[in-house]
Amino acid sequence: MDLDAITKHSALHAKPPGLTFHYGTAGFRMKAELLDHIMFRMGLLAALRSKQTNATIGVMVTASHNPEEDNGVKLVDPLGEMLAPTWEEHATRLANAEDGDVARVLVDIMEKEAVELPQDAFVVIGRDTRPSSENLGQSVREGVAAFGGQFHDYGLLTTPQLHYMVCCRNTGGRYGKATLDGYYHKLAAAFLELTKQASCSGDENVSVKVDCANGVGALKLKEMEPRFSPVLSVQLINDGTKGKLNHLCGADFVKSHQKPPQGLEMKPNERCCSFDGDADRIVYYYCDVDGAFHLIDGDKIAVLISSFLKELLLEVGEIFNIGVVQTAYANGSSTRYLEEVMKVPVHCTKTGVKHLHHKAQEFDIGVYFEANGHGTALFSKAVEVKIKQLAKLEDKKGKAAKMLENVIDLFNQTAGDAISDMLVIEAILALKGLTVQQWDALYSDLPNRQVKVKVADRRVISTTDAERQAVTPPGLQAAINNLVRKYRLSRAFVRPSGTEDVVRVYAEADSQESADSLAHEVSLAVF
Ligand code: NG1
Ligand code: ZN
Q1: pLDDT (tens digit, 9 = 90+) per residue, 346-384?
Q2: Which of 9, 86, 482, 500 has the highest count of CB atoms within 10 angstroms of its CB?
């Protein structure tokens, strides 16, 4: 490593003065023009992490559902997981180092982590469709190269596709081929096999309108479509040819405003879904004959998936423990349904997929979803091996195991993935002969409201109990408790966002008016 060269090169990617940067829930995220130095340094850090793990590391340039003017970056660890927490700290330190100190901080991290310099480094890079992403990706490449690392830039990818690529490259191809063709092939083959078993396959093929948030998901879904179109037709809306990324559309807009995206006309009972800007989230919805909008969010997706898996396991006849992981944002009705009707254990973790993913790994089969539609299912090695064995049997049990084998392949187990989740959902609905209306009717969501509050310093709020209780500032939790007591079936909590400079307030209650009013009152208590 040529320290002088790194110092010189760092000066070309100068840190804007007077700002502090933090590797948050989803990496670094802010206005794109402030990110150049971070991109270069994340290239350096990814190369370092690659040497330390002796594996390929991923770098994704995206700000997901945030406005087009923003951008962001996160690192992907060897098995396609989020970066390890100690390395998030290194990332924060490196991002905040003065330009002249970058090389010194790198050496310090290397010493702390016992990185062997002669080791090779290999980094794969993906980016979303933001206008700023191409140049920022170039800075990542320069960072990797400045450290003597090699890279492969996939160009435009959805975030979950990059996670998939990293996992494939580090598992000797056992997870799939590390190409877009490999990704499409794996998912489409599993989907077609699964839907062959659907009894109502004589019906005309199902069609779904997909709002792609004007993001990268549109490009990738269009590329993949011919592979599943004999069974499922997709009509792409907000495909990026006209509108602005995430503007009045996409999963985050639909979930937080609880209304359809701009540009999507819904006929009564028509099946629709929305991806977010980097296609790692999905929500479904429809309008009923009275024109009322019905949102089917991550919670209901988790219910559909876990009930299907539970039924399939009964047919397979194996005892595997299955659990569902949610966050405090999960609708109270979903938690009650899972625990009381489905008798599935539910766990609550802090917000941020890394926490959910980690918890879900503790089960033989762990299903995790954030209410906003980010989630997937994880299957332990033992489950995968056993199911593969059973799938060879020619009896009923073997048939169910074969089905489960395809379900396992259809999930992107490295990250929540809108394309993969959509295919899983469509396969389950086809196999169970369910309409979205029947799916929606499994339980009724409690009316809820989420609001953002701008405060001088959001970090004065700290929380415990998976973010459901505020510890500081003193008196805040007592004030929330007093407000919650005024409403029926109510619950509320506050937490500082990890991706925006706001405090988020969540409230639910027996009516929309009560939920709105409780959210409003709690927001006032936050000031
Ligand atoms: P923050 O800003 O920390 O609330 C948001 C989402 C998370 C997660 C991250 C990453 C909510 C309430 N929060 O985090 O679930 O998806 O963005 O994109 O939806
Ligand atoms: Zn996203």
Answers
A1: 999 999 999 999 999 999 999 999 999 999 999 999 999
A2: 9
Query: For ligand 1, is residue 357 a contact (CB within 6 Å)?
Result: no
Domains in the chain (CATH in brackets) are 3-156 (3.40.120.10), 182-295 (3.40.120), 298-416 (3.40.120.10), 448-526 (3.30.310.50)
- Catalytic residue chosen out of the listed positions 64, 132, 307, 523: 64
pLDDT band per the 50, 70, 90 thresholds, residue 499: confident
Q: Do the beta carbons of residue 351 and residue 498 sit within 8 Å?
A: yes
Binding site residue list for substrate = 370-372, 495-499, 504
pTM of the full structure: 0.96
Closest-CA residue, ligand 1 atom 13, reads 351
Residue 301 CB contacts under 8 Å (≥ 6 apart), including other chains: 282, 283, 284, 369, 373, 375, 421, 425
Q: Determine if ligand 1 sits within 6 Å of the CB of residue 272.
A: no
Q: Is the CB of 26 inside a 6 Å radius of any atom of ligand 1?
A: yes
Nearest Cα to 287, choosing from 270, 299, 275, 306?
270
Buried b (16+ CB within 10 A) or exposed e, 244-260: ebbbbbbbbbbbeebeb
Name the β-bridge partners of 232.
206
Contact present, 43 and 26 (Cβ < 8 Å): no
**Which residue has tokens 């056993």?**
386
Rounded to the nearest integer, the mean pLDDT of the chain is: 96
Q: Is the C-beta atom of 414 inside 6 A of ligand 1?
A: no
